[in-house]
Write a structure and sequence with these properties.
Two copies of one chain form a homodimer. Chain A has helices at 3-26, 30-46, 48-64, 69-75, 79-94, 132-144, 158-174, 190-197, 212-221, 244-256, 272-288, 297-302, 331-341, 354-363, 380-383, and strands spanning 102-107, 113-120, 123-128, 148-152, 182-184, 205-209, 234-238, 265-271, 292-295, 307-308, 322-328, 346-350, 368-373, 390-392, 400-402, 408-419. Chain A is of the alpha/beta class. Chain A folds into two domains: 3-230, Aldehyde Dehydrogenase, Chain A, domain 1; 234-376, Aldehyde Dehydrogenase, Chain A, domain 2 (3-Layer(aba) Sandwich).
C-alpha cells in the first residue's frame, strides 16, 4: 500500500467509526447527553495542566516557524481560556435539545396521522484553522444535537487539539456513550483534508470555519454538501427620515465595535435627502474613532476627510477601520446597490418611515435584515439561538446563523391503522 | 467564438435572465401569482391544438428513432392529458403560499424583536427526462413559491416542452409578471446540461427528476447544490404481534399497487415468531398477483414457490413484481438490516406492540417511517403537502417529499428601536 493510499484508508477508518457511533447517539436522550456535557466541562477544568503542556508545544513550534503574533494569540490557551471553554460547554447543557421534536402533526382524510420529527443530520465534518477552542465548541454542539463529528483543525494546533479531543472523548465514554462520536483527524498532511472531503458515504455535511480562502478551498474540493459563507459585505442604509443620533450610533457600532468580523458594516448608504443633515455628523464620529472613509463624489463634497472610493471598494470586505460611503437617490437605489454588491449577509435600515421599514425587510434578500438595529446582532447568541456552529449565506438548508436546530433535519412519521393506498 | 463557448454563453444568458426575473417574483403577492396560475391553466386548455401538433412532431421523431413503447407513452400528450396538466395547475392555486410566512418571532432581552421569514430560494434548475407534464408541473410549483426556474427536459420532448413553456410564459406576462421567470433551455446538445450545472452564480439549487442514472450524472457534475434521491429500497417489517390481514394488505399494496415507483416495497422482513403463521398467507396473496419471491433459507422452508435470494437481492430496487423476503430474529435485526441495505427512503412496521411501534418510528432514520400503513403513502400529496417537486433522501435542506415549503428558505428579520451591541 502506498503512503497516500494508507492515509486515505486511515481517514476513512476515522469517518467510518464516526458513522457507526452516530447511531446510538442519535437516539440517546437529552438527560444522558447533558450528563456527558457536564462531564466534559469538568474534565476540561481538571485537565488544565495537560492541556496547557500540549498547547505550549504547539506554541513553541509556531514561534520557531515565525508565526505572526495575531495567529499565536488565537492558538494560545491559558487557565482563563480553558475556563471559558468549559463555561461554553455548560451553556450548551442549558440549550433545548432539538432531537425528537415533532414540529407538526396532522390527520389525513384516510385517518393516517402524519408528523415531522427532528432527527440529527448524522456525521458533521468541521474543517477549521488553528483555534483550539473550536475543537470543543464544535464537538459539543454536534454532540448535543445528536451528531457525531469529524474535526480537522489547523496543523499548528495539532497537539492542543489532540489533547482536547482525548479529554472530551474520555468524558463521553465515562457517561456511557461511544467515544467515537468525537473524532479528530490526527494528520497534518494536507491530503488528509481532501480524503475527509471525499468521504461522502460517512459524512453528511461539511462546515468550514475560518477565512475566505479556507472556505473556498473546502467548497471547491468537497464531494459532501458544504454549508458556508464566504464573506460579509454588510450595509447600513440611512433613510431620509432617519433619526440622526440613532443612525450615528448604529453605523459607529457596526463599523467600530469589532471591525474584523463578518457582521461588521462595510458600506454606508445615505439617502440624498439625509446627506447634508446626517452624513457630516456620522463621518465625524467615525473619523474620531480612526475610521477611513472612502466616498462617492457626493460624499466627498460633504466629508472633507474622505478619500475617493474606487470600484473595488463597493464589493470589499475591509475587515478593518475602513468604510465605503455612497449617497443614493432613495430606497430603490439602496436595495439595488445591496443586491449588486452585497454578500447576502446582513443589512440594516435606519428609518422612521413605516412603509420603508416594511419594504426593506421584505425585499432585501440577505440572511438577516434589520430595522433600526446594529448589523452586529446577526449572531446566533444575539438572535437567541444559543451558540452557533457556523453561518450560512447560501440558502439551502440554513440561511444565517446555524444553531442546534440547523444541525438536524426532519423525517416524516406516520401512525396508521392498516391504511393502504387505493 | 467557438461553438462550445457560444453555447455556454447562451445557457448563461438564460440563467442570468432567470436570476433578474426572480427578484420581482420574490416579492409578488399570492393574489397576483394565483391570477397568473389561473391564466396558465386556461391558456393550456385553449392551446390544446398547438400543443398536440408540437407533441406529434416529437412522437414522430421518437418513433423513427425506434424509441421503446413505454418511453413513447411517457412522451405522448392527448386532450385528456392536457386537461390533467391544467387541473394540476389549478390545484396549485389552492395550495397555501409559503412566502412571507413568519415561522416564529421572539423578543430578546435588549428589546429587539427577532423573527424568521420564509423567502423563495431564488432560481431552481430542473433536469428531467422526456416527460412534458414535468415542464408545467415544475414551473408552476416554482412559480407559486416565488422562484424562477430553468427547465432542461429530455431532448425527445423538445418541441412539446418549447410549446408548453411558451404558453406558460405568455400567461405569466399577461398577468403582469416577467415571462423570464420560466426559462426552458432550448438546446438538445448534452453540453447544455453541463453549462446549466455550472451556473452557480445564477442558480441556487438543482433538482433532478428521473431515473437513477440521470440523478447520478447530475449529482456528480453539478457545482450547484443538488437535492436528490437515487433510489427507494423500501422495507415492510412484519412484527411478531402483527395482525395477519393488515400485514397482508400492506405488503400486497406496497408491492403490487404500482411496482415501478420509488415508494414500492422491495424487501419484506418477517419476525421469526410470525413466520410460520403469517408468511405463507402473505406469500400466497403475492404469488396470486404474479409476484416472484426471493427468499432467505427460512423463507424457502415456508414458501415453496420462492426462489433463493442472493446477496444482490437485499440492496436491490426491483421496480417490478419481485420481492426479497427475509425472516429475522426480531426488531433489532430488522432495524440493522434496514440500516445496512436500505436507501433511507420509506419503511413500515406492522405491529400491535406499542413499544415496538414507537421504537421503530424513533430509531429508523429513513425519510418516512410508518406504523401500520402502506409505504405507498410517502408522497407529497398523500402526506398532505400538496404537489411535490421532488423527493430527497439526503438530509440537507429537505428529507422526503418536497412541497412548496421546501422551495423556500428562512431569513432572519429584526425590528429594533436603535439597539446597538455592547
Amino acid at each position: 500500500m502506498t503512503g497516500a493510499a494508507n492515509l486515505r484508508e486511515q481517514v476513512r477508518s476515522i469517518t467510518g467509526r464516526a458513522r457507526v457511533a452516530s447511531r446510538p447517539l442519535a437516539s440517546a436522550g437529552s438527560a444522558l447527553k447533558n450528563r456527558a456535557l457536564e462531564g466534559i466541562a469538568a474534565a476540561l477544568e481538571a485537565s488544565s495542566d495537560r492541556l496547557l503542556e500540549a498547547n505550549a508545544r504547539d506554541l513553541a513550534r509556531a514561534r520557531a516557524a515565525g508565526t505572526a503574533p495575531a495567529m499565536l494569540d488565537r492558538l494560545a490557551l491559558d487557565a482563563r481560556r480553558i475556563g471559558e471553554i468549559a463555561s461554553a460547554v455548560r451553556e450548551v447543557v442549558l440549550l433545548p435539545d432539538p432531537v425528537g421534536e415533532v414540529t407538526g402533526m396532522w390527520r389525513r382524510p384516510n385517518g393516517i396521522l402524519v408528523g415531522r420529527m427532528r432527527i440529527p443530520l448524522g456525521v458533521v465534518g468541521i474543517v477549521y484553522e488553528a483555534r483550539p477552542n473550536v475543537t470543543v465548541d464544535a464537538a459539543v454542539l454536534c454532540f448535543k444535537s445528536g451528531n457525531a463529528c469529524v474535526l480537522k483543525g489547523g496543523s499548528d494546533a495539532i497537539e492542543s487539539n489532540l489533547a482536547l479531543a482525548e479529554v472530551t472523548r474520555a468524558a463521553i465514554a465515562a457517561a456511557g456513550l461511544p467515544a467515537d462520536v468525537v473524532q479528530l483527524v490526527p494528520f497534518t498532511d494536507r491530503a488528509a483534508v481532501q480524503y475527509l472531503l471525499e468521504a461522502d458515504e460517512d459524512v453528511d455535511v461539511i462546515i468550514p470555519r475560518g477565512g475566505e480562502a479556507l472556505i473556498r478551498h473546502v467548497a471547491e474540493h468537497s464531494r459532501i454538501p458544504v454549508i458556508k459563507h464566504f464573506k460579509g459585505v454588510c450595509h447600513v442604509f440611512v433613510d431620509a427620515s432617519a433619526d440622526l443620533d440613532m443612525a450615528r450610533d448604529i453605523v459607529v457600532n457596526g463599523k467600530v465595535q469589532r471591525p474584523s468580523v463578518c457582521n461588521a458594516v462595510e458600506t454606508l448608504l445615505v439617502h440624498e435627502r439625509a446627506a447634508a443633515t446626517h452624513l457630516p455628523a456620522i463621518a465625524e464620529a467615525l473619523v474620531a474613532r480612526g475610521v477611513e472613509i472612502r466616498g462617492c463624489p457626493r460624499t466627498l463634497a460633504l466629508v472633507p476627510a474622505a478619500r475617493p472610493a474606487t470600484d473595488d471598494d463597493w464589493p470589499a470586505e475591509f475587515l478593518d477601520l475602513t468604510l465605503a460611503v455612497k449617497v443614493v437617490d432613495g430606497l430603490d437605489e439602496a436595495i439595488a446597490h445591496i443586491e449588486r454588491y452585497g454578500s447576502m449577509h446582513t443589512e440594516s435600515i435606519v428609518t422612521c418611515d413605516y412603509a420603508n421599514a416594511q419594504r426593506f425587510l421584505r425585499e432585501v434578500g440577505s440572511s438577516c435584515v434589520l430595522v433600526n438595529a446594529s448589523t452586529r446582532f446577526n449572531d446566533g447568541n444575539q438572535l437567541g439561538l444559543g451558540a452557533e456552529i457556523g453561518i450560512s449565506t447560501t440558502k439551502l438548508h440554513a440561511f444565517g446563523p446555524m444553531g442546534l436546530e440547523e444541525l438536524t433535519t426532519r423525517k416524516f412519521i406516520v401512525y396508521g391503522e392498516g391504511q393502504i393506498r387505493e
